[in-house]
Amino acid sequence: MALPDSPIKTPEDLEGKTINVQVLKNFQELALAQVLKRHGVDPAKITYVPVTFQDLVSAWQKGQIDAAYVGEPMVTSLATKLGARKILDPASGPAAEFPISGYVTTRDWFAQNPTISAAFRRAIRAAGNLAADRSSVTSVLPEFTQVDRATAERVTLPFFPAEDEPVRLQRVADWMSQAGWLSKPLDVTSLTQ
Questions:
Q1: pTM for this structure?
Q2: Which of these, 11, 78, 121, 161, is most buried using a 10 Å CB contact count?
């Protein structure tokens, strides 16, 4: 996103600019690099600086970052409160439905706790199915977060898969390898059950 008076109007205008991330070398950099490439922008010409969401607006208004990498509900909130403009969606194109979190355990624990493991997987699948219904998510956002009802109705919701997605996970590992963050390629099927 860019502030209303920013000269950044298109993804191409991001080249040579400074963008925030929560921490360096995380999913934000991986996904954004792929989306930038799709727009003809060299990701190596972007400077990333760690800025927490709590410090984002201050850092942005002080010129410490040129553009803000934020997700919902901050996208809607910043557009409403500051008139910030969306330059590109970092979760689009090659980064659509990019997994940003997950659950892991050891093979031993999984094998020793089959009832708990199965119940957990059923619960995650059920939650994914519930999240696929927009109204079931937006109706409870104000109860469990600081998002008001009007914002909850306007936010773009992330993708919550109800099933394991090894292909999507492999994409993360492949991009980490391309970025030089892994010492050798990783086959995620060796990690999934």
A1: 0.78
A2: 78
